[in-house]
Amino acid sequence: MLGLAAKNLRRDRRRTVATIVTMTVGMLAILVFLAWVEFVERSLAQVVIEDQANGHIQIYRKGGPNNLSAFPAQYSITRDDQFLVSRFVREMSAVRNVSYDMTGVGMVQHGTRSSIFLATGVDSATRRGRESDADRVRLTAQLADLIGARRGADIQLVGATYGNRMNAVDATFADEFSTGTEATEDKGLKMPLSLMQALYDTDSVSRVIVRIGDRADTDRIRDVIAAGLEQRAPGRFEVTTWSSPRVGQLYTSFMGFFQMLFLFTGTVIALIAGTTVQHAVRMNFDDRIKEIATMRAIGFSRARLVLLFAQETLLCAAFAAMLSIALTGCLFALLDVLHVTTTLPRVALPVTLSLALPWVHSIGVVGLSVALVAGSGAFAATRCMRRTMGAARDRSLARALMGGAVAVACVLLVPTGETRAAEPDTATMTRWLNRADLARGGAGTWNWTVRVHSSEPSGGTDTTYMVAVRDGDALVRTIEPKRYQNERILIAARAMWYVKPGLRRPISVSPQQRLVGEASNGDIAATQYARDYLPEYAGETRVEGHDCYRLRLNATRNDVTYAGIVYYVDRRTQLGVKAEFMTPSGEIFKTATFDYQTVRDADGKESPFVSAMTIVNTNFPDRMSRLEYSEVRPASLPASLFSLANFTSM
Amino acid sequence: MPLVELKSVTKTYRLGEVTVNALDDVSLSIDEGAFTALTGPSGSGKTTLLNLIGCLDRPDTGVVLIDGRPTGNLGENQLDHLRSRVAGMIFQSFNLVPVLTARENVELPLHLHPLSRAERAARVDDALASVGLTRWADFQPDRMSGGQRQRVAVARALVMKPRLILADEPTASLDTANAVALVDLMRQLNQEQRVTFLFSTHDDRLLRSVSEVVELRDGRIVNMGATKDRAGAPHGLRCISAEVQ
């Protein structure tokens, strides 16, 4: 039968050649696409493991992968735990390298230009030793451009410590690097672990990075490490791999997309190949209908005839398979010779296109394709056999169309029957804001002391500041704890500056940086809502037992701390009772409530002044700060106190 | 026991909205060794009758018995087996496989049976010799004349040594010389090997050489008997239900 099948292929050579060419192209497409997927997989794994410095295996504190960015202090690995983990992991023969790693965000500043950074702190145990110099950092080319820094430039890094305080360190821009991914290419920064720990004021690390010899061994070693750590410190650690969704997000998301694309493309190719085969078989069948009838008449069963057509298709497919494998090999070799480079989606640097497919995969895929094609041929032959050799069935496929959709759109026009009181004009609202600002120290000349108690799940901190204000300008000096003593913030003409002992020069604090800490620097120093925001009346409501006006304050400038504020002003006293602070997208991210005391102003006149301010993080309600104001006194302060020139020398 | 027996067989086809009675209550029996012609105008039901006897189709009503065995209850595989064992078929347009040689065409039915290569070769040689085509064994059909092709078809029908050969207009595509030669060959095989022949034809040359004729018209048997004198029941042929329906 196989001999007959082979001879039958010579009947219409043109058709046979066309069929083989179509099948070859289809299989070639599948093989090349598969090799491309494998290339992408390999390249993405390289980016995740090496360029993003995730290593093969990562050890976090339990819950770390999900919570580190929000609660770095709570979910980082302490010094004791670092020793415990590394002592155990280093004993394993499959482990090539163990290092510590830290990630964090902040602002990098060069002169007057600053930009956000997304940093990795790399310890000297990693294969790249260049980060070992204490203050030498590496920036991505885009980030360096953003801040206008050249190699060797002095830069400053600003961030929030694990205790949620503002901090800054001096550094030197040593070299450029690439994060490997487009999304972070304008933010990437690498610094020595010790420098990053100094910036975040901690000796903890985010995670322990483990590199092994063979990527394929990752899951097995991960299991061994996880079991070993669970035995040594039950419930304390979480072990992930480079391909886990949280760590290898780039890899998993892109490969997920790619596999879907492959499935889609594979289905399309299979459909085209299937249709071609069906068509070819059908044409063959129709051409040979008499001969087939004869064969039936001399005793050939339908199954045998179907087998004959399947064998014919199989022979074509087998020939196409060999051809496609040979062509694929030639194509891959040609690419190697030409050194073609390509860029991967979301990956920053171009990579050399090197396609390769293990023989097992090639033969497996092609074998499967051949089987599918032969099956398709058999299916087509069976259908033809039924159509022509079997009893004709008149199948009338009646399709009933469901019609008649009744859509009644009921628009309920609810009249806004609420009778509103006359809305206050802008001048009136600005007057209320002025009075409220005065009671928060936003106007006039004052000295006061504010003690800030911040609490969060990992613990609490207390800091005391001495604040001097003069008509919106402010100088804030840290009094306690002693290690932060003499850190200073200056707010002058809306700009904010930060300096601490040992820092080469003051750091300009951007509006975003002012938000550092639950109680932001802006909150500590007070702000002038009447000056910086345009009020909009938003009705009346009752808050904390007070009848209040609800004012929507929209920022009139983009260098203010908050993009918008919903401010509740007591109708009777015209003091701010509550404020809801909003992101530029209009989401409330923290709220503040105010208590008041009575103080005497410079003229001896009694006036209300804020006594306490409680700030709660809307997204994490267990993170809050309470600011308690004391020693509020009117003062005579010279303008020179608030000048940048005098700021450093204080 | 007759080799072929039909009892009240009816077969209808639908051609669009029209129902055609291809065979209408036909009863017939053919004894082993008969050399019988089916004749009648086009559309009279000759081919349908051959298809039913060859188990290529099933009657709507009535019974077809081959060697005393009713075929109506047989499954697809059993019918295939019956066809390959009992009946050989010859067609008007030869229906040879063009990519195969004469030898391979003749050998084709033997692949359905567990025979050794040598056994197959011997049978093929015998069949080709019996139709006088030994010299042409390795020629493909397109290099042979119409008569030779039909003889290859006869050899293919003979190779399984069937007891019955059904032929549908076997001489229709042949010139007179080839037609006469084929008829002589068939007659010879009938007489020497006692192979039963049942064939449809309009060809007077063929009709003259047969001893029995069944004449069909509009799906019914209208006449049957010996071609020359029609006296008495011819050998091997009788109408079961009635002399003439």
Short structural description:
Chain A is an alpha+beta fold and 650 residues long.
Task: Describe the SSE topology.
The complex is a heterodimer of chains A (650) and B (245).
Chain A: H1 2-8, H2 13-51, E1 57-61, H3 64-67, H4 72-75, H5 79-90, E2 95-110, E3 113-122, E4 136-140, H6 141-147, E5 154-160, E6 166-177, E7 188-192, H7 193-199, E8 207-212, H8 218-232, E9 237-241, H9 249-287, H10 289-297, H11 302-338, E10 341-342, E11 351-352, H12 359-389, H13 426-439, E12 445-456, E13 459-470, E14 473-480, E15 488-492, E16 495-499, E17 507-509, H14 521-525, H15 529-532, E18 533-543, E19 546-555, E20 564-570, E21 576-582, E22 588-600, E23 606-617, E24 624-634, H16 644-647
Parallel strand pairs in A: 3-7, 4-6
Antiparallel strand pairs in A: 1-8, 1-9, 2-3, 2-5, 2-8, 4-7, 5-6, 10-11, 12-13, 12-24, 13-14, 14-15, 15-16, 16-17, 18-19, 19-20, 20-21, 21-22, 22-23, 23-24
Helix pairs in contact in A: 1-11, 2-9, 2-11, 5-8, 9-12, 11-12
Chain B: E1 4-15, E2 18-30, E3 35-39, H1 46-53, E4 61-66, E5 69-70, H2 76-86, E6 87-90, H3 102-107, H4 117-130, H5 146-158, E7 164-168, H6 176-193, E8 196-200, H7 204-209, E9 212-217, E10 220-225, E11 237-238
Parallel strand pairs in B: 3-8, 3-9, 6-7, 7-8
Antiparallel strand pairs in B: 1-2, 1-4, 2-11, 4-5, 9-10
